[in-house]
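Class, look over these structure tokens:
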Amino acid sequence: NQGGFRRGANMAVLRVDHPDILDFIHSKQSEGVLTNFNISLGITDAFMQAVEKNQHFPLINPRTRAVVKTVNAKQLFDQIIHSAWENGEPGVLFLDTINAANPTPPLGEIEGTNPCGEQPLLPFEACVLGSINLSRMVKLTHGKYEIDWNRLETVIQRAVHFLDNVIDINKYPLPQIEQLTKGNRKIGLGAMGLADLLLKFGISYNSEEAIHFTDKLMCFLSQKANEASVKLAAKRGAFPNYQKSIYAQKNEPGYRNATRTTIAPTGTISIIADCSSGIEPLFAIAYKRHVLVEEGLPEINSYFLEIAKKRGFYSERLIEKVSKEGSIQNLDDIPEDVKKVFITARDVSPEQHVKIQATCQKYIDNGVSKTINFPKNATAGDVEKVFLLAYKSGCKGITVYRDKSRVSQVLSVECTCAKQFINNNFSEPQP
């Protein structure tokens, strides 16, 4: 129990060809049911092909492999889409895409992930995760920010070493978990603070430039994490199941870890690091975080406040407007160049959300946890488009959330206590 709304989390995954699939899709239709479970469907290439061709699709008894009945794939897909549009669940895992990157196929097929979907795992397998705050990996040169590539490389090397140590120092609840976890030694080094980093560089999250920028970062993260794992293997040996891995078959280097990189959501640790979560855009410039207290904790982006004061458009009245809106796009008091950069999750097109996720996935060994945000007035057709785009773009899964589709949500835009928050946390600028 992490307090408030954050109790222990679970992930329930059911293959799309299971006879109980319809009941599973609608299992969380009533709010308050299975509150400690995320649910996801294991989607196969065969199902997606049947959807595209509007064909019937067999539902199979997993014990006997007998076909129980057939259903129209497109109609089943429509039910999945409608449920996701209605309340954000189920999420989807693309099982064939996941298993195409399974580093140890002889040890079994991957059928599920951790609760947020970023870490595909075999039965009884665990993985240690860690995230680098990208917004700190910068240096000022002649008054402008640059990526501090040397510092980032050093941090990556140390993080890989640290996560590998955690595997050995961990306490395991079952011997099967310890055996497989130490046999594969999977780690998942990722990143958070991407949105904050883009702000420092004056890059809009909703731009092609953001995609190219993210591509370069993720390529570097993957390359240096791989190099660090190879160096570690030279000292400590490759992971014990290496000979059963795809790396041995391809005559690739002996990695210390079967996987090295993962993009986790970092919803909690990013609060500690005081940065934006994972690879997500800012949820809002000002919002309430509902965790420990019922009325919610107001949060206002500190970098926005800094810019507002530096550029001379700060006022308490403006901050109160931002607090009510969440976004600044419709506020006349704010310069256009600031609006261009300080965009929020609901200002970003769903397609751009998917493109950022797919860009990261190109380089990440495991999965990428990302929420595709939709405005309240989005349609089920809008949701269908991004599901198909995610599948065709090589994503390993997708989760969507339409604003206000649940009565209770962890983040909400309405922040009516901005005045108190400002008075308590920020001094008025001197005239």
